[in-house]
Write a structure and sequence with these properties.
It catalyses: a 2'-deoxycytidine in DNA + S-adenosyl-L-methionine = a 5-methyl-2'-deoxycytidine in DNA + S-adenosyl-L-homocysteine + H(+). Pfam families: DNA_methylase. With about 45 residues, this protein is an alpha+beta fold. About 25% of the residues lie in helices and about 40% in strands. The chain has one domain. The protein is built from two helices and two strands, in the order H-E-E-H.
């Protein structure tokens, strides 16, 4: 998925998080991806 977004001009930022490390009593792994256009990423 990262390659697909990169090929069309986006800079993907991916994070794997698990709720058990933030005080929740359940094991809930999550994958979060935020994609920013490369031209806008340079301005940040």
């Amino acid at each position: 998925m990262v390659k697909a977004f990169s090929s069309i001009g986006y800079m993907p930022v991916c994070v794997h998080v698990n709720a058990k490390y933030s005080g929740v009593a359940q094991n809930r792994p999550r994958f979060i991806m935020i994609a920013i256009k490369k031209c806008e990423f340079k301005n940040i």
